[in-house]
Amino acid sequence: PRSFLDVRDLRIHFNTDDGVVKAVDGLSFQLDRGKTLGIVGESGSGKSVTSLGILGLHRHSKARVSGEVWLDGEDLIAASDERVRALRGQRIAMIFQDPLTAMHPYFTVGAQIIEAYRVHNNVSKKVARQRAIDMLGRVGIPQPARRVDDYPHQFSGGMRQRAMIAMALVNNPELLIADEPTTALDVTVQAQILDLIRDLQEEFHSAVIMITHDLGVVAELADDILVMYGGKAVEYGTAETIFRRPEHPYAWGLLGSMPRVDRDVRDRLIPVKGTPPSLINLPSGCAFHPRCPYVGYNGIPCRTEIPTLAEGSDHGVACHIPPAERQRIFSEDIAPA
Ligand code: SF4
Ligand code: MG
């Protein structure tokens, strides 16, 4: 393995009555401790399934999984169910868009954090309770010693999100996966939660995967960005590269819908029209071709040949337009003069 997390050719396919859903189809990426990877795409691009695959949560479903997920030198795909369960919540933790998918409504917030801690640590209830109070304080819950005995519904949406983060981080996970963690929150709380994740990451030196449909969320947080479309990576590189000189026509569209981009740029970008493809019946060739303004550009075989991302390069782009041409189109037609 080349990194703390090294995902190689991950495939997660589901059999359904309508056919095989290729939710993740040959995904590779690396992530080091202390770094953040943003996985960006529309809903149905396979980005959430990717995280479930890393967590081993597909194991209870009828998914067919192949590839390798190396975490600190151990392949999680090959590991036993028991081993993966032991790692989950301890070395790997996850936060979701909706805290109620992670927190049970009938138990107090404190009881759930205590349980999450005691599953992996042989400590008394008293010690675990103090740990829960400390964690609630750390994520910015006021009067944590009092609020620890509240039920989730007694917290506001933003506070529930903080409590879920406290629960996810109670065991100092080395890998934190956050799936749309701020989507349901208003802009101010969103910014606070992202700051909180960044602070905790610095403190714990964890690797973070931030999954989002919104490039704006990862603009300041991510070191690397992987853009997913139709279950595959279409562009992968450093955040600086993806924001400064993206090369995939889909990324041009995504950047165009991002409010942080300089207005002159946004006005020139082509919005992504149309809807994401069905993962059962992907368009032939480049899955993006029905929506791509450059389909067939200079006679390239968009409808028949699947473009691939160059393996191991610093900046991978799955598009048939030659690299120099993509850069020229971006700098002349899309980026401001
Ligand atoms: Fe567009 Fe063709 Fe590139 Fe796909 S391969 S992104 S259809 S130009
Ligand atoms: Mg999702």
Describe the structure.
Residues 7-255 form the ABC transporter domain. InterPro entries: AAA+_ATPase, ABC_Ni/Peptide_Import, ABC_transporter-like_ATP-bd, ABC_transporter-like_CS, Oligopep_ABC_C, P-loop_NTPase. It is a peripheral membrane protein. This protein has 337 residues and is an alpha/beta fold. Among the domains are: 103-170, no CATH class; 246-334, no CATH class. 34% of the residues lie in helices and 21% in strands. It has 12 helices and 11 strands. It has helices at residues 47-55, 81-87, 109-120, 125-138, 144-147, 157-169, 187-204, 215-219, 239-244, 249-256, 263-268, 323-334, and strands at residues 5-16, 19-31, 36-40, 63-71, 74-75, 92-95, 175-179, 207-212, 224-229, 232-238, 316-317. Strand 4 (63-71) and strand 5 (74-75) form a beta hairpin. The longest helix has 18 residues, at 187-204. It is globular, with a radius of gyration of 21 Å. 42% of the residues are buried. Bound molecules: iron/sulfur cluster (SF4) and magnesium ion (MG). The site of iron/sulfur cluster (SF4) has 14 residues, from loops.
Brief summary of the model shown:
The protein has 337 residues and is an alpha/beta fold. It has 12 helices and 11 strands.
Can you tag this structure with a few keywords?
337 residues; alpha/beta; 7-stranded mixed beta sheet; 4-stranded antiparallel beta sheet; 11 strands; 21% strand; binds iron/sulfur cluster; binds magnesium ion
